[in-house]
């Protein structure tokens, strides 16, 4: 017996008495098997295709409405394009001429960028191995290690001296600028008058955002790993261990030796004692304190982007404390960069930030090639990993509880996807559903700079107006925790029908029909 469900749906441009009624049926061959989930969000109607259904018929559809499909993968594994669900036929919809009978496997393209984003070296975090029950702060020593540096004071600092950043040497540096919470050092080999000016700008900028960042993301550690008894590290307060105490040291020099594109980084190696043989060789080059490294060429050319990088790297430092030191977690690169990029976002004084805008532009063209993961097999994929992480995080910030969400994600005892779901109270399937639907709808606001439909970024002839959608019959991998967006076309009839292949991963893949 063919059953029918009548669902109410109101569009904002209809008068009160002209309320269309959607009738929805799903079929497997000729048998009705289920009724799809119906949801209304403003003037958008959403149907989730049941796992068993091979076809969907929707009646009473307003003419000229646009029909989309969004596909999501709630698992950490790739769903291959030849096994993913896709449309096989449609009725009642006018397809774009370019979409007819074409499988678009390489439909989306994106410009590459020479900009290498700020980063953190997290591989050294794995040397963390301490018994939290036995962990204690060593305060018995009365002698302070902290020194009273003043402008012009000299200090030796370990920095990399080759393009692969694999060789480190001790270099002489002088204190060029000082703030309440930071000291800015310039390696003497790279000192210029312009760099001295930039040092003052960076010190002032860091002081201005220091407390705000900590209020959202938590505090960095004022203690560092010291004594190691073969089983665990003991912690000591930095004023007893580090010559720079608890101040954040910003070191300006030519990172990677000339034009490698890297703006700055944080390394957890500096939270360990120098020259110990119980851990990574990198600890030989620990500077023993809080350190952020900024490229001198970038600092000379664009102090503003370096201020943004400082926010990014300071968040990495904070997250190292909140997740690794306090909770013993080692977040993956995608979560690391999402949180740091959100910190950049929130610290912007104006929306004119080409760094962040370029990430939205790259997401808009390449989102299907990367989910909430880090892909380092090429420069394009590495850049795209940052772009997807940033866009998803900015969407969370824009649609959820703003600052309280950020604080919860940054300080809860989890990492990666679990940290996000714990903070939002929603599972990852629900979050990806809402995110993908917002990516095809045109009604988003511009809070916290996030609006993938209003990305005013134009470079080398590329101009974007929201995420590019694939043709109706496209086959594409669905990346881990990723999405694929399909634009079918305009409704030319009040009854539309969609036919699909059989879903092979019912517990992972979700298919949503969106009518706007």
Report the radius of gyration as a whole number of Å.
26 Å
Total count of helical runs of at least 4 residues: 9
What is the general shape? elongated
Mean pLDDT: 81
Q: Strand order of the main beta sheet, please?
A: 10-18-19-17-14-13-12
Low-confidence stretches: 1-20, 29-34, 100-141, 445-450, 455-462
Walkthrough of the structure:
By secondary structure, the protein is of the alpha+beta class. The protein contains 9 helices and 24 strands. Strands 10-18-19-17-14-13-12 form a 7-stranded mixed β-sheet. Strands 1, 2, 3, 6, 8 and 23 form a 6-stranded antiparallel β-sheet that branches. Strand 2 (21-28) and strand 3 (31-34) form a beta hairpin. Helix 4 (333-346) crosses helix 6 (379-399) and helix 5 crosses helix 6. It is elongated and about 80 Å long. 43% of the residues are buried. Mean pLDDT is 81; it is low at 1-20, 29-34, 100-141, 445-450 and 455-462.
Give a quick rundown of the structure.
The protein is α+β, with helices and mostly antiparallel strands and 516 residues long. The chain is built from nine helices and 24 strands. The N terminus is likely disordered.
């Amino acid at each position: 017996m063919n059953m029918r469900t009548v669902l109410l749906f109101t569009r904002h441009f209809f008068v009160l008495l002209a309320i269309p009624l959607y009738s929805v049926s799903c079929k497997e061959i000729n048998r009705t098997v289920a009724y799809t989930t119906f949801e209304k969000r403003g003037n958008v109607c959403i149907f989730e295709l049941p796992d068993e259904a091979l076809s969907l018929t929707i009646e009473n559809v307003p003419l000229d409405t646009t029909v989309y499909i969004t596909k999501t993968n709630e698992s950490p594994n790739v769903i291959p394009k030849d096994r993913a669900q896709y449309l096989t036929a449609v009725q009642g919809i006018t397809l774009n001429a370019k979409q007819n009978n074409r499988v678009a496997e390489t439909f989306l393209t994106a410009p590459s960028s020479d900009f290498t984003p700020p980063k953190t070296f997290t591989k050294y975090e794995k040397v963390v191995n301490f018994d939290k029950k036995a962990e204690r702060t060593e305060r018995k020593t009365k002698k302070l290690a902290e020194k009273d540096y003043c402008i012009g004071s000299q200090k030796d600092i370990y920095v990399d001296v080759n393009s692969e950043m694999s060789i480190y040497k001790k270099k002489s540096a002088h204190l060029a600028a000082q703030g309440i919470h930071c000291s800015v050092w310039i390696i003497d080999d790279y000192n210029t008058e312009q760099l001295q000016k930039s040092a003052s700008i960076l010190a002032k900028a860091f002081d201005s955002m220091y407390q705000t960042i900590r209020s959202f993301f938590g505090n960095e550690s004022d203690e560092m790993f010291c004594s190691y008894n073969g089983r665990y590290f003991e912690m000591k307060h930095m004023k007893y261990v580090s010559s720079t105490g608890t101040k954040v040291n910003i070191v300006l020099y030519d990172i990677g030796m000339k034009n490698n594109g890297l703006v700055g980084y944080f390394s957890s190696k500096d939270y360990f004692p120098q020259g110990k043989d119980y851990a990574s060789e990198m600890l030989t080059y620990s500077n023993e304190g809080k350190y952020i490294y900024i490229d001198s060429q970038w600092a000379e050319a664009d102090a503003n982007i370096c201020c943004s990088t400082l926010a990014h790297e300071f968040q990495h430092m904070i997250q190292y404390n909140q997740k690794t030191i306090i909770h013993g977690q080692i977040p993956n690169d995608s979560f690391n960069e999402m949180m740091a990029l959100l910190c950049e976002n929130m610290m912007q004084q104006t929306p004119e930030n080409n760094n962040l805008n370029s990430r939205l532009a790259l997401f808009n063209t390449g989102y299907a090639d990367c989910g909430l993961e880090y892909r380092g097999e090429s420069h394009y994929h590495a850049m795209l990993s940052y772009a997807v992480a940033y866009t998803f995080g900015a969407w969370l910030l824009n649609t959820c509880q703003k600052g309280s969400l950020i604080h919860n994600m940054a300080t809860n005892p989890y990492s990666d996807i679990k940290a996000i779901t714990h903070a939002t109270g929603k599972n990852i399937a629900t979050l990806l559903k809402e995110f993908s639907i917002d990516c095809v709808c045109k009604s988003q606001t511009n809070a916290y700079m996030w609006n993938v439909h209003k990305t005013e970024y134009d470079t080398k002839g590329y101009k974007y107006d929201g995420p590019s959608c694939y043709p109706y019959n496209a086959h594409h991998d669905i990346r881990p925790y990723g999405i694929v967006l399909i634009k079918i076309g305009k409704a030319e009839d009040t009854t539309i029908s969609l036919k699909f292949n059989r879903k092979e991963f019912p517990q992972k893949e979700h298919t949503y029909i969106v009518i706007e």
